[in-house]
Amino acid sequence: MLQHLFKSRFSYLFTGIALGFLLAITVSTLDSNITRDVIVQAEKMVGLDFTPVERDSMLGQVQDHLEDYQNLRKVDISNATPYALNFDPIPHGTSVSKENRLNRWNIPPAVQMPDDTAKLAYFSIAELASLIKQRKISSLQLTRFFLERLRKHAPRLRAVITYTESRALEQAEKMDRELNNGKYRGPLHGIPYGIKDLFALPGYPTTWGAEPYKEQHINTTATVIKKLDQAGAILIAKLSLGALAYGDLWYEGRTLNPWDLQEGSSGSSAGSAAATAAGLVPFSIGTETLGSIISPSNRCGTTGLRPTFGRVSRHGAMALSWSMDKIGPITRSARDAAMVFDAIQGPDGNDQSVKDIPFNYRDKVNMDTLTIGYYQSAFDDDYDNKSHDQQTLDKLQEMGANIVPVELTDLPVS
User: What are phi and psi of 162, to 5 degrees?
Assistant: First the structure.
């Protein structure tokens, strides 16, 4: 079907999209002279086969398109410029409740400081929030504690790209002053965290984990950082990611799984998952296009929330795929993930894909009221993590949920 479409309208579709783009890549390393032989080689890259007459017919237009591509590359379009693309995740005909209920996080009132302060590394956000609210530890003390853990352990894991220490200490002191003056911002007040280094922050490099961008500075503050600032959280480090948000290998090496230093932490939110799993930060922020929160969370044993597209603004983040990129928390429990998500979700006026839809958290859910769908043919396949995934289904069913198999349209593409 596709080949028929291309061949019947090759003078516009093929030369305008596929062949022109491939030829632009091909000849950019050679010279600007496109011949019939160059077209033949480009055809092999997309699995098409044209006749000599068709190649002669398209030759002039392909030359024109090459010039267009070369001119396009001269235009400096910043990462902050969004594509003219808005995907609506709400299915047609579906209505969404706009009821906005107050989320109650049930912070435990009487958490005690541990005799061994090292145990703070694995306290939940709610437990740390209780200690701060009771003034049993200050935000400044907690920030220094986690900065020391990062400096001690993160180099072995290759989990940190840039420390934001001066900013963090200043913010922590501010949170302590506010608390002493009776202002409490909520459960993230004074809680340190790390963020994947594809979010822009003035005064610090935003490297995207890639050698060519080691010294890149972007003079904007990503919306996620702004929202966490407003919630009182303290950014202490920009964490590693696979180069250009792919895998767990960046310009200083591979980020490692803290539970097995013989393997990588998976990617691309590699440092976020590794640092959270190792108790180097109470929580972190990752991004996902195709598994980059879920995969490292699975590898490192963290709780990763890959939100629905259109829930969290991507303003100030590196764009990998405007129709797929999502931002979410990496934590050590579902409730911690909910607390962080509550702070970062919602529109900001910059990312037009984000919907204004309430997030109403329920701490206790009657599982037998839930219907959970799973992609049966995928679960039936033989793959590495099959046993763990099956345990998840079994556990949900044991808890009373109604587990329903679903299927997607079978298409010959991944």
Answer: -140, 130
Backbone angles phi and psi of 355, in degrees to 5:
-90, 150
pLDDT at 259 exceeding the cut of 50:
yes
Peptide bond preceding 387: is omega within 30 degrees of 0, i.e. cis? Answer: no
pLDDT tier, 29 (very low <50, low <70, confident <90, very high otherwise): very low
What is the CA 17 to chain-centroid distance, rounded? 29
Structure-token match 């001066």, residue found: 166
- Cα 336 from Cα 390, distance rounded (Å): 25
Cα–Cα distance measured from residue 150 to residue 236, given in angstroms and rounded to the nearest whole number: 9
How far apart (Å, rounded) are the C-alpha atoms in residues 328 and 199?
13
- Give yes or no for a contact between 160 and 239, defined as CB atoms under 8 angstroms apart: yes
> Residues 173, 140: contact at Cβ < 8 Å?
yes
**CA gap 64, 15 in Å, rounded:** 10
Place of tokens 């479409």: 5
Instruction: Please state the φ and ψ torsions of residue 333, each to the nearest 5 degrees.
Output: -160, 160
Mean pLDDT, residues 30-43 taken together: 82
Q: What percent of the chain stands above pLDDT 70? A: 92
| Residues labelled catalytic | 196, 268, 292
> What is this structure's pTM?
0.86
What letter represents residue 252's amino acid? Answer: E
Q: Cα-flanking dihedrals φ and ψ of residue 133, to 5°?
A: -65, -35
N-term to C-term CA, the chain = 18
Distance between CA atoms of 96 and 112, rounded to whole angstroms? Answer: 42
Q: Which conformational region is residue 211 in: left (phi greater than 0), alpha (psi within -120 to 50 degrees), or beta?
A: alpha
**Is the pLDDT score of 24 beyond 80?**
no
Main-chain phi, psi angles of 238, to 5 degrees: -100, 120
